[in-house]
Design brief:
- By secondary structure, the protein is α+β, with helices and mostly antiparallel strands.
- It folds into 2 domains: 236 residues, Hypothetical Protein Pfu-838710-001; 284 residues, CHAD domain.
- The chain is built from 18 helices and 9 strands.
Length: 547
Protein backbone atom coordinates (compact mmCIF):
# COMPACT_ATOMS: atom_id res chain seq x y z
CA UNK A 1 0.00 0.00 0.00
CA UNK A 2 1.63 3.27 -1.10
CA UNK A 3 1.30 6.48 0.88
CA UNK A 4 1.90 10.03 -0.29
CA UNK A 5 3.18 13.17 1.35
CA UNK A 6 3.93 16.63 -0.03
CA UNK A 7 7.62 17.37 0.55
CA UNK A 8 8.50 21.07 0.79
CA UNK A 9 12.17 21.51 1.53
CA UNK A 10 15.25 23.53 0.79
CA UNK A 11 18.78 22.17 0.55
CA UNK A 12 21.84 24.10 1.69
CA UNK A 13 25.62 23.72 1.75
CA UNK A 14 28.55 25.40 3.46
CA UNK A 15 30.32 27.95 1.28
CA UNK A 16 33.74 27.69 2.97
CA UNK A 17 35.69 25.35 5.21
CA UNK A 18 35.53 28.02 7.92
CA UNK A 19 31.74 28.05 7.74
CA UNK A 20 31.69 24.27 7.97
CA UNK A 21 33.84 24.37 11.11
CA UNK A 22 31.46 26.87 12.71
CA UNK A 23 28.55 24.58 11.86
CA UNK A 24 24.86 25.39 11.78
CA UNK A 25 23.86 28.57 13.64
CA UNK A 26 21.25 28.48 16.39
CA UNK A 27 17.90 28.98 14.68
CA UNK A 28 15.97 29.76 17.86
CA UNK A 29 14.42 33.18 17.38
CA UNK A 30 14.25 32.86 13.59
CA UNK A 31 10.67 33.53 12.51
CA UNK A 32 8.40 31.30 14.65
CA UNK A 33 11.19 28.97 15.79
CA UNK A 34 11.35 29.03 19.59
CA UNK A 35 13.72 26.10 20.13
CA UNK A 36 15.69 23.38 18.40
CA UNK A 37 15.49 19.77 19.65
CA UNK A 38 18.27 17.30 18.82
CA UNK A 39 16.81 13.97 17.70
CA UNK A 40 20.09 12.09 17.28
CA UNK A 41 21.88 10.52 14.32
CA UNK A 42 20.75 7.81 11.94
CA UNK A 43 22.59 5.93 9.19
CA UNK A 44 20.79 5.64 5.85
CA UNK A 45 21.61 3.36 2.93
CA UNK A 46 19.78 4.11 -0.32
CA UNK A 47 20.09 2.68 -3.81
CA UNK A 48 18.58 4.75 -6.63
CA UNK A 49 17.13 3.07 -9.70
CA UNK A 50 16.66 4.31 -13.24
CA UNK A 51 16.43 3.10 -16.82
CA UNK A 52 19.72 2.47 -18.63
CA UNK A 53 19.29 5.79 -20.47
CA UNK A 54 18.29 7.57 -17.22
CA UNK A 55 14.83 8.73 -18.23
CA UNK A 56 13.79 9.28 -14.62
CA UNK A 57 16.74 11.52 -13.81
CA UNK A 58 16.20 13.48 -17.01
CA UNK A 59 12.64 14.26 -15.88
CA UNK A 60 13.60 15.04 -12.29
CA UNK A 61 12.10 11.85 -10.81
CA UNK A 62 13.84 9.71 -8.21
CA UNK A 63 13.17 6.11 -7.23
CA UNK A 64 15.09 4.66 -4.32
CA UNK A 65 15.13 1.72 -1.95
CA UNK A 66 16.34 2.84 1.43
CA UNK A 67 17.12 1.07 4.69
CA UNK A 68 17.74 2.77 8.00
CA UNK A 69 15.63 5.48 9.60
CA UNK A 70 11.95 5.57 10.45
CA UNK A 71 10.78 5.57 6.83
CA UNK A 72 12.77 2.65 5.42
CA UNK A 73 11.22 1.41 2.20
CA UNK A 74 10.76 2.36 -1.42
CA UNK A 75 10.29 6.05 -2.24
CA UNK A 76 9.28 7.63 -5.52
CA UNK A 77 9.58 11.43 -5.72
CA UNK A 78 7.69 13.35 -8.38
CA UNK A 79 8.45 17.05 -8.97
CA UNK A 80 5.60 19.50 -8.38
CA UNK A 81 7.42 22.84 -8.48
CA UNK A 82 10.90 24.09 -7.46
CA UNK A 83 11.56 22.83 -3.94
CA UNK A 84 8.29 20.88 -3.83
CA UNK A 85 7.89 17.18 -4.55
CA UNK A 86 5.33 14.50 -3.87
CA UNK A 87 6.95 11.56 -2.13
CA UNK A 88 5.13 8.26 -2.56
CA UNK A 89 6.29 5.48 -0.29
CA UNK A 90 5.85 1.72 -0.15
CA UNK A 91 7.17 -0.95 2.25
CA UNK A 92 10.49 -2.67 1.72
CA UNK A 93 10.44 -5.49 -0.81
CA UNK A 94 12.88 -7.23 -3.09
CA UNK A 95 11.42 -5.70 -6.23
CA UNK A 96 9.85 -2.38 -7.16
CA UNK A 97 6.33 -2.36 -5.68
CA UNK A 98 3.56 -2.54 -8.25
CA UNK A 99 2.04 0.71 -6.98
CA UNK A 100 5.23 2.62 -7.78
CA UNK A 101 6.00 0.70 -10.98
CA UNK A 102 2.64 1.75 -12.41
CA UNK A 103 3.47 5.42 -11.83
CA UNK A 104 6.66 5.00 -13.87
CA UNK A 105 5.06 3.11 -16.73
CA UNK A 106 4.86 6.00 -19.20
CA UNK A 107 8.60 6.48 -18.84
CA UNK A 108 9.96 2.96 -18.30
CA UNK A 109 7.45 1.26 -20.65
CA UNK A 110 8.61 -2.24 -21.63
CA UNK A 111 12.16 -1.55 -20.49
CA UNK A 112 13.57 -2.09 -17.04
CA UNK A 113 15.08 -0.42 -14.01
CA UNK A 114 18.55 -0.96 -12.67
CA UNK A 115 20.59 0.34 -9.73
CA UNK A 116 22.49 3.50 -10.69
CA UNK A 117 23.80 5.10 -7.51
CA UNK A 118 24.18 4.11 -3.88
CA UNK A 119 24.07 6.86 -1.25
CA UNK A 120 25.33 6.24 2.28
CA UNK A 121 24.34 9.06 4.63
CA UNK A 122 25.00 9.76 8.27
CA UNK A 123 22.12 12.06 9.18
CA UNK A 124 21.92 14.21 12.27
CA UNK A 125 18.32 15.24 12.84
CA UNK A 126 16.88 18.19 14.74
CA UNK A 127 13.32 19.44 15.06
CA UNK A 128 12.53 23.14 14.80
CA UNK A 129 9.77 23.84 17.35
CA UNK A 130 7.43 26.75 17.98
CA UNK A 131 6.60 28.14 21.44
CA UNK A 132 4.02 25.38 21.99
CA UNK A 133 6.47 22.63 21.11
CA UNK A 134 4.85 21.94 17.75
CA UNK A 135 7.24 20.75 15.05
CA UNK A 136 7.58 23.38 12.33
CA UNK A 137 10.29 21.65 10.30
CA UNK A 138 12.97 19.00 10.37
CA UNK A 139 16.59 20.07 10.08
CA UNK A 140 18.98 17.41 8.80
CA UNK A 141 22.73 17.54 8.37
CA UNK A 142 23.86 14.74 6.07
CA UNK A 143 27.38 13.47 5.50
CA UNK A 144 26.93 11.76 2.15
CA UNK A 145 29.00 9.23 0.23
CA UNK A 146 27.84 8.50 -3.32
CA UNK A 147 28.97 5.37 -5.16
CA UNK A 148 28.03 5.26 -8.83
CA UNK A 149 27.99 2.17 -11.03
CA UNK A 150 27.65 1.55 -14.76
CA UNK A 151 25.19 -0.91 -16.23
CA UNK A 152 26.23 -3.75 -18.45
CA UNK A 153 25.19 -6.99 -20.08
CA UNK A 154 23.37 -9.37 -17.81
CA UNK A 155 22.46 -6.60 -15.37
CA UNK A 156 20.17 -7.85 -12.62
CA UNK A 157 16.55 -8.65 -13.40
CA UNK A 158 15.39 -5.02 -13.34
CA UNK A 159 15.49 -4.78 -17.11
CA UNK A 160 13.75 -8.02 -17.89
CA UNK A 161 10.18 -6.75 -17.80
CA UNK A 162 8.48 -3.39 -18.09
CA UNK A 163 7.55 -1.38 -15.02
CA UNK A 164 3.84 -1.93 -15.56
CA UNK A 165 4.02 -5.70 -15.95
CA UNK A 166 3.52 -8.32 -13.28
CA UNK A 167 6.70 -8.63 -11.25
CA UNK A 168 7.90 -5.50 -12.99
CA UNK A 169 10.93 -3.46 -12.17
CA UNK A 170 12.98 -6.33 -10.78
CA UNK A 171 15.78 -4.58 -8.97
CA UNK A 172 18.40 -7.25 -9.13
CA UNK A 173 17.69 -10.08 -6.73
CA UNK A 174 17.79 -8.86 -3.11
CA UNK A 175 19.19 -5.31 -3.00
CA UNK A 176 18.65 -5.10 0.76
CA UNK A 177 21.17 -4.54 3.53
CA UNK A 178 24.33 -6.42 2.40
CA UNK A 179 22.67 -7.14 -0.93
CA UNK A 180 22.02 -3.42 -1.33
CA UNK A 181 25.72 -2.77 -1.92
CA UNK A 182 26.00 -5.82 -4.14
CA UNK A 183 23.24 -4.53 -6.42
CA UNK A 184 25.25 -1.48 -7.37
CA UNK A 185 28.48 -3.44 -7.35
CA UNK A 186 27.14 -5.81 -9.99
CA UNK A 187 26.62 -2.83 -12.25
CA UNK A 188 30.38 -2.28 -12.24
CA UNK A 189 32.76 -0.23 -10.12
CA UNK A 190 32.24 3.50 -10.48
CA UNK A 191 33.25 6.88 -9.19
CA UNK A 192 32.81 8.07 -5.62
CA UNK A 193 31.86 11.52 -4.30
CA UNK A 194 31.42 12.87 -0.78
CA UNK A 195 29.84 16.04 0.57
CA UNK A 196 27.93 17.53 3.47
CA UNK A 197 24.40 18.74 2.89
CA UNK A 198 21.83 20.52 5.04
CA UNK A 199 18.09 20.05 4.51
CA UNK A 200 15.19 21.90 6.06
CA UNK A 201 11.89 20.13 5.38
CA UNK A 202 8.65 21.75 6.49
CA UNK A 203 6.11 19.91 8.61
CA UNK A 204 2.61 19.72 7.18
CA UNK A 205 0.82 23.05 7.49
CA UNK A 206 3.93 25.18 8.10
CA UNK A 207 4.09 28.44 6.15
CA UNK A 208 6.76 28.14 3.41
CA UNK A 209 7.93 31.63 4.42
CA UNK A 210 9.83 29.88 7.22
CA UNK A 211 12.29 28.58 4.64
CA UNK A 212 13.04 32.15 3.54
CA UNK A 213 13.72 33.18 7.13
CA UNK A 214 16.02 30.18 7.68
CA UNK A 215 17.84 30.91 4.43
CA UNK A 216 18.48 34.50 5.55
CA UNK A 217 19.98 33.30 8.85
CA UNK A 218 22.04 30.65 7.07
CA UNK A 219 23.36 33.14 4.54
CA UNK A 220 24.87 35.25 7.32
CA UNK A 221 26.63 32.12 8.60
CA UNK A 222 28.18 31.26 5.22
CA UNK A 223 25.57 28.67 4.24
CA UNK A 224 23.91 29.01 0.83
CA UNK A 225 21.16 27.26 -1.08
CA UNK A 226 22.51 24.20 -2.88
CA UNK A 227 22.75 24.27 -6.66
CA UNK A 228 21.51 20.67 -6.84
CA UNK A 229 17.76 20.02 -6.52
CA UNK A 230 18.33 16.58 -4.96
CA UNK A 231 20.99 14.28 -3.59
CA UNK A 232 20.66 12.08 -6.64
CA UNK A 233 21.22 14.99 -9.02
CA UNK A 234 24.36 15.96 -7.11
CA UNK A 235 25.60 12.38 -6.95
CA UNK A 236 25.20 11.95 -10.71
CA UNK A 237 26.88 15.28 -11.41
CA UNK A 238 29.84 14.73 -9.08
CA UNK A 239 30.47 11.16 -10.22
CA UNK A 240 30.21 12.11 -13.89
CA UNK A 241 27.21 9.85 -14.54
CA UNK A 242 24.49 12.47 -15.06
CA UNK A 243 22.29 12.07 -18.15
CA UNK A 244 23.16 14.24 -21.13
CA UNK A 245 21.47 17.64 -20.84
CA UNK A 246 18.30 17.99 -22.84
CA UNK A 247 18.22 20.44 -25.72
CA UNK A 248 16.95 23.88 -24.80
CA UNK A 249 13.18 24.20 -25.21
CA UNK A 250 11.97 25.79 -28.39
CA UNK A 251 13.04 25.41 -32.00
CA UNK A 252 16.71 25.10 -32.87
CA UNK A 253 16.16 27.17 -36.01
CA UNK A 254 13.47 29.41 -37.45
CA UNK A 255 12.00 26.96 -39.93
CA UNK A 256 8.42 25.73 -39.96
CA UNK A 257 9.57 22.19 -39.25
CA UNK A 258 11.63 23.22 -36.22
CA UNK A 259 8.73 25.12 -34.67
CA UNK A 260 6.17 22.38 -35.26
CA UNK A 261 8.46 19.68 -33.88
CA UNK A 262 9.26 21.78 -30.80
CA UNK A 263 5.53 22.16 -30.13
CA UNK A 264 4.91 18.43 -30.61
CA UNK A 265 7.74 17.54 -28.22
CA UNK A 266 6.23 19.83 -25.61
CA UNK A 267 2.85 18.09 -25.93
CA UNK A 268 4.44 14.62 -25.95
CA UNK A 269 6.22 15.48 -22.69
CA UNK A 270 2.96 16.75 -21.19
CA UNK A 271 1.22 13.50 -22.15
CA UNK A 272 3.92 11.41 -20.47
CA UNK A 273 4.06 13.65 -17.39
CA UNK A 274 0.29 13.49 -16.80
CA UNK A 275 0.24 9.68 -16.79
CA UNK A 276 1.18 9.26 -13.10
CA UNK A 277 -1.15 12.12 -12.15
CA UNK A 278 -4.08 10.32 -13.83
CA UNK A 279 -3.20 7.10 -12.02
CA UNK A 280 -3.18 9.03 -8.74
CA UNK A 281 -6.55 10.62 -9.60
CA UNK A 282 -5.17 14.13 -9.16
CA UNK A 283 -7.58 16.98 -9.96
CA UNK A 284 -7.75 17.97 -13.64
CA UNK A 285 -5.13 15.38 -14.64
CA UNK A 286 -7.43 13.46 -17.01
CA UNK A 287 -8.41 16.73 -18.67
CA UNK A 288 -4.80 17.82 -19.10
CA UNK A 289 -3.78 14.46 -20.55
CA UNK A 290 -6.66 14.57 -23.03
CA UNK A 291 -5.74 18.13 -24.00
CA UNK A 292 -2.16 17.06 -24.74
CA UNK A 293 -3.38 14.19 -26.92
CA UNK A 294 -5.81 16.48 -28.75
CA UNK A 295 -3.17 19.12 -29.36
CA UNK A 296 -0.85 16.57 -30.93
CA UNK A 297 -3.64 15.20 -33.11
CA UNK A 298 -4.73 18.69 -34.10
CA UNK A 299 -1.17 19.71 -34.98
CA UNK A 300 -0.83 16.69 -37.25
CA UNK A 301 -3.85 17.91 -39.22
CA UNK A 302 -3.13 21.64 -39.12
CA UNK A 303 0.48 21.30 -40.23
CA UNK A 304 -0.05 18.67 -42.90
CA UNK A 305 2.15 20.72 -45.23
CA UNK A 306 5.01 20.23 -42.74
CA UNK A 307 4.53 16.59 -41.68
CA UNK A 308 3.54 13.74 -44.00
CA UNK A 309 0.03 12.61 -43.08
CA UNK A 310 0.65 9.06 -44.23
CA UNK A 311 2.83 8.82 -41.11
CA UNK A 312 0.82 11.02 -38.76
CA UNK A 313 -2.74 9.88 -39.53
CA UNK A 314 -2.35 6.41 -37.92
CA UNK A 315 -0.89 8.07 -34.83
CA UNK A 316 -3.76 10.53 -34.80
CA UNK A 317 -6.25 7.65 -34.68
CA UNK A 318 -4.42 6.13 -31.72
CA UNK A 319 -4.48 9.48 -29.94
CA UNK A 320 -8.22 9.67 -30.60
CA UNK A 321 -8.62 6.23 -29.02
CA UNK A 322 -6.64 7.31 -25.93
CA UNK A 323 -8.65 10.50 -25.47
CA UNK A 324 -11.89 8.52 -25.77
CA UNK A 325 -10.83 5.96 -23.17
CA UNK A 326 -9.80 8.70 -20.74
CA UNK A 327 -12.91 10.71 -21.53
CA UNK A 328 -15.43 8.26 -20.12
CA UNK A 329 -14.49 9.25 -16.60
CA UNK A 330 -13.83 12.93 -17.27
CA UNK A 331 -17.04 13.59 -19.20
CA UNK A 332 -19.17 11.99 -16.51
CA UNK A 333 -17.42 14.06 -13.82
CA UNK A 334 -18.08 17.30 -15.69
CA UNK A 335 -21.71 16.42 -16.41
CA UNK A 336 -22.41 15.42 -12.81
CA UNK A 337 -20.80 18.61 -11.46
CA UNK A 338 -22.90 20.73 -13.82
CA UNK A 339 -26.20 19.15 -12.81
CA UNK A 340 -25.20 19.19 -9.15
CA UNK A 341 -24.46 22.92 -9.31
CA UNK A 342 -27.78 23.62 -10.99
CA UNK A 343 -29.65 21.59 -8.38
CA UNK A 344 -27.89 23.56 -5.63
CA UNK A 345 -29.04 26.80 -7.26
CA UNK A 346 -32.74 25.91 -7.26
CA UNK A 347 -35.07 27.45 -4.66
CA UNK A 348 -36.29 24.88 -2.14
CA UNK A 349 -39.93 24.85 -3.42
CA UNK A 350 -38.66 23.62 -6.80
CA UNK A 351 -36.96 20.56 -5.27
CA UNK A 352 -39.64 17.89 -5.51
CA UNK A 353 -38.81 14.36 -4.39
CA UNK A 354 -35.44 12.77 -3.49
CA UNK A 355 -33.56 14.88 -6.04
CA UNK A 356 -30.05 14.71 -4.59
CA UNK A 357 -30.32 11.03 -3.80
CA UNK A 358 -31.50 10.20 -7.32
CA UNK A 359 -28.64 12.25 -8.80
CA UNK A 360 -26.13 10.33 -6.66
CA UNK A 361 -27.59 7.00 -7.75
CA UNK A 362 -27.55 8.00 -11.42
CA UNK A 363 -23.94 9.23 -11.18
CA UNK A 364 -22.71 6.10 -9.37
CA UNK A 365 -24.32 3.82 -11.96
CA UNK A 366 -22.82 5.69 -14.92
CA UNK A 367 -19.38 6.10 -13.41
CA UNK A 368 -19.05 2.50 -12.31
CA UNK A 369 -16.07 1.02 -14.12
CA UNK A 370 -15.13 4.21 -15.97
CA UNK A 371 -11.96 4.77 -13.95
CA UNK A 372 -11.02 1.11 -14.34
CA UNK A 373 -11.41 1.55 -18.07
CA UNK A 374 -9.08 4.56 -18.11
CA UNK A 375 -6.43 2.73 -16.06
CA UNK A 376 -6.75 -0.35 -18.26
CA UNK A 377 -5.99 1.83 -21.27
CA UNK A 378 -2.86 3.22 -19.58
CA UNK A 379 -1.71 -0.29 -18.73
CA UNK A 380 -2.27 -1.63 -22.23
CA UNK A 381 0.38 -2.53 -24.78
CA UNK A 382 -1.51 -0.36 -27.26
CA UNK A 383 -0.84 2.74 -25.14
CA UNK A 384 2.86 1.93 -24.75
CA UNK A 385 3.12 1.36 -28.50
CA UNK A 386 1.56 4.79 -29.04
CA UNK A 387 4.16 6.46 -26.80
CA UNK A 388 6.97 4.63 -28.58
CA UNK A 389 5.55 5.61 -31.96
CA UNK A 390 5.42 9.27 -30.92
CA UNK A 391 9.04 9.10 -29.81
CA UNK A 392 10.05 7.47 -33.08
CA UNK A 393 8.23 10.07 -35.16
CA UNK A 394 9.86 12.94 -33.28
CA UNK A 395 13.28 11.31 -33.53
CA UNK A 396 12.96 10.80 -37.28
CA UNK A 397 10.15 13.13 -38.43
CA UNK A 398 8.47 12.61 -41.82
CA UNK A 399 9.10 16.18 -42.98
CA UNK A 400 7.65 17.59 -46.18
CA UNK A 401 9.27 20.32 -48.33
CA UNK A 402 7.47 23.13 -46.44
CA UNK A 403 9.31 22.14 -43.25
CA UNK A 404 12.49 23.80 -44.52
CA UNK A 405 10.77 27.10 -45.28
CA UNK A 406 10.70 30.04 -42.83
CA UNK A 407 8.11 29.61 -40.10
CA UNK A 408 6.67 33.09 -40.74
CA UNK A 409 5.70 32.05 -44.26
CA UNK A 410 4.26 28.61 -43.55
CA UNK A 411 2.59 28.77 -40.14
CA UNK A 412 0.28 31.79 -40.76
CA UNK A 413 -1.25 30.02 -43.75
CA UNK A 414 -1.98 26.96 -41.59
CA UNK A 415 -3.55 29.08 -38.84
CA UNK A 416 -5.74 30.99 -41.31
CA UNK A 417 -6.75 27.75 -43.04
CA UNK A 418 -8.14 26.43 -39.76
CA UNK A 419 -9.86 29.77 -39.11
CA UNK A 420 -11.59 29.58 -42.51
CA UNK A 421 -12.64 26.00 -41.81
CA UNK A 422 -14.29 27.18 -38.60
CA UNK A 423 -16.00 30.03 -40.45
CA UNK A 424 -17.62 27.59 -42.87
CA UNK A 425 -18.93 25.42 -40.03
CA UNK A 426 -20.37 28.32 -38.07
CA UNK A 427 -22.09 29.71 -41.17
CA UNK A 428 -23.58 26.30 -41.93
CA UNK A 429 -24.85 25.93 -38.34
CA UNK A 430 -26.41 29.38 -38.21
CA UNK A 431 -28.27 28.71 -41.47
CA UNK A 432 -30.16 25.86 -39.81
CA UNK A 433 -33.31 26.18 -37.73
CA UNK A 434 -32.97 25.57 -33.97
CA UNK A 435 -33.16 21.87 -33.16
CA UNK A 436 -31.21 18.65 -33.21
CA UNK A 437 -29.60 19.23 -36.62
CA UNK A 438 -28.32 22.65 -35.56
CA UNK A 439 -27.07 21.20 -32.26
CA UNK A 440 -24.95 18.68 -34.17
CA UNK A 441 -23.66 21.38 -36.51
CA UNK A 442 -22.68 23.63 -33.60
CA UNK A 443 -20.87 20.69 -31.99
CA UNK A 444 -18.86 20.25 -35.19
CA UNK A 445 -18.12 23.98 -35.11
CA UNK A 446 -16.93 23.64 -31.53
CA UNK A 447 -14.40 20.99 -32.56
CA UNK A 448 -13.23 23.24 -35.38
CA UNK A 449 -12.86 26.16 -32.93
CA UNK A 450 -10.71 24.02 -30.70
CA UNK A 451 -8.46 23.10 -33.63
CA UNK A 452 -8.22 26.75 -34.72
CA UNK A 453 -7.24 27.73 -31.19
CA UNK A 454 -4.59 25.00 -30.93
CA UNK A 455 -3.20 26.03 -34.33
CA UNK A 456 -2.71 29.61 -33.14
CA UNK A 457 -1.18 28.45 -29.85
CA UNK A 458 1.26 26.21 -31.71
CA UNK A 459 2.34 29.16 -33.86
CA UNK A 460 2.77 31.65 -31.00
CA UNK A 461 6.49 30.93 -30.54
CA UNK A 462 7.11 31.86 -34.17
CA UNK A 463 4.49 34.56 -34.79
CA UNK A 464 4.27 36.27 -31.41
CA UNK A 465 1.38 38.58 -30.48
CA UNK A 466 -0.73 38.14 -33.64
CA UNK A 467 -0.95 34.38 -33.01
CA UNK A 468 -1.55 34.95 -29.29
CA UNK A 469 -4.45 37.30 -30.04
CA UNK A 470 -5.84 34.80 -32.54
CA UNK A 471 -5.69 32.02 -29.96
CA UNK A 472 -7.55 34.20 -27.45
CA UNK A 473 -10.29 34.99 -29.99
CA UNK A 474 -10.68 31.31 -30.90
CA UNK A 475 -10.87 30.38 -27.23
CA UNK A 476 -13.81 32.76 -26.77
CA UNK A 477 -15.66 31.05 -29.61
CA UNK A 478 -14.75 27.60 -28.32
CA UNK A 479 -15.96 28.48 -24.81
CA UNK A 480 -19.36 29.66 -26.04
CA UNK A 481 -19.82 26.62 -28.28
CA UNK A 482 -18.64 24.39 -25.43
CA UNK A 483 -21.28 25.81 -23.12
CA UNK A 484 -23.89 25.10 -25.78
CA UNK A 485 -22.74 21.51 -26.24
CA UNK A 486 -22.63 20.94 -22.46
CA UNK A 487 -26.25 22.06 -22.35
CA UNK A 488 -27.19 19.59 -25.09
CA UNK A 489 -25.53 16.72 -23.21
CA UNK A 490 -27.05 17.82 -19.89
CA UNK A 491 -30.56 17.85 -21.38
CA UNK A 492 -30.16 14.26 -22.56
CA UNK A 493 -29.06 13.28 -19.05
CA UNK A 494 -31.89 15.19 -17.37
CA UNK A 495 -34.42 13.49 -19.63
CA UNK A 496 -33.04 10.08 -18.59
CA UNK A 497 -33.07 10.95 -14.88
CA UNK A 498 -36.63 12.27 -15.19
CA UNK A 499 -37.76 9.00 -16.79
CA UNK A 500 -36.06 7.03 -14.00
CA UNK A 501 -37.84 9.17 -11.39
CA UNK A 502 -41.20 8.59 -13.08
CA UNK A 503 -40.60 4.84 -13.29
CA UNK A 504 -39.84 4.79 -9.57
CA UNK A 505 -43.02 6.68 -8.74
CA UNK A 506 -41.23 9.92 -7.83
CA UNK A 507 -41.94 13.39 -9.12
CA UNK A 508 -40.07 14.38 -12.29
CA UNK A 509 -40.95 18.05 -11.80
CA UNK A 510 -37.46 19.19 -10.73
CA UNK A 511 -35.80 17.46 -13.67
CA UNK A 512 -38.24 19.19 -16.00
CA UNK A 513 -37.37 22.56 -14.46
CA UNK A 514 -33.65 21.90 -14.94
CA UNK A 515 -34.27 20.75 -18.52
CA UNK A 516 -36.08 24.01 -19.30
CA UNK A 517 -33.24 26.03 -17.80
CA UNK A 518 -30.65 24.17 -19.90
CA UNK A 519 -32.78 24.77 -22.97
CA UNK A 520 -32.84 28.50 -22.20
CA UNK A 521 -29.05 28.54 -21.69
CA UNK A 522 -28.52 26.89 -25.07
CA UNK A 523 -30.80 29.43 -26.74
CA UNK A 524 -28.83 32.26 -25.16
CA UNK A 525 -25.56 30.80 -26.51
CA UNK A 526 -27.06 30.62 -30.00
CA UNK A 527 -28.18 34.27 -29.81
CA UNK A 528 -24.73 35.40 -28.64
CA UNK A 529 -22.77 33.40 -31.21
CA UNK A 530 -23.02 35.85 -34.16
CA UNK A 531 -21.57 38.71 -32.09
CA UNK A 532 -18.83 36.57 -30.52
CA UNK A 533 -17.91 35.24 -33.95
CA UNK A 534 -17.88 38.73 -35.48
CA UNK A 535 -15.35 39.86 -32.86
CA UNK A 536 -13.23 36.80 -33.58
CA UNK A 537 -13.10 37.75 -37.27
CA UNK A 538 -11.69 41.27 -36.90
CA UNK A 539 -9.88 42.11 -40.17
CA UNK A 540 -6.89 43.63 -38.34
CA UNK A 541 -6.09 40.36 -36.64
CA UNK A 542 -6.30 38.42 -39.86
CA UNK A 543 -4.13 41.00 -41.62
CA UNK A 544 -1.50 40.67 -38.89
CA UNK A 545 -1.32 36.94 -39.57
CA UNK A 546 -1.15 37.22 -43.35
CA UNK A 547 2.38 36.31 -44.49
Amino acid sequence: MADTKREIERKFEFTTAKAARRGIPDLAGTARIASVADRGTVDLDAVYYDTPDQRLAADGLTLRRRTGGADAGWHLKLPVSPGVRDEIGAPLSDTVPRSLAALLRSRVREGGLEPRVRLLSSRRVSHLLDADGTVLAELSTDSVRAEAGQTGEGQAGAGQRGAGQAGAGQAGGRPADAGQAAAVGRAGAGAVATWTEIEVELAEGTDPALLDAVEKTFRKAGIRVSDSPSKLARALAETGTAPAPRPAPGPAEDTAGAHVLAYLRLQRDALVAQDPAVRRALPDSVHQMRVASRRIRSAFKTFRKVLDRTATDPLGEELRWLAAELGVDRDQEVLHARIQDHVAGLPRPLLQGPVRGRLRTWHAARRSGSRRRALAALDSKRYLALLDALDALLADPPLRPAADKPARKVLPKAVLRDHDRLARRIAAALDLDPGTERDHALHDARKAAKRARYAAEAATEALGKPAKRQAKAMKAVQTLLGEHQDSVVARDALRDIGLQATAAGDSAFTWGVLYAREEALAATCERELPDVWAKACEPARRAALTP
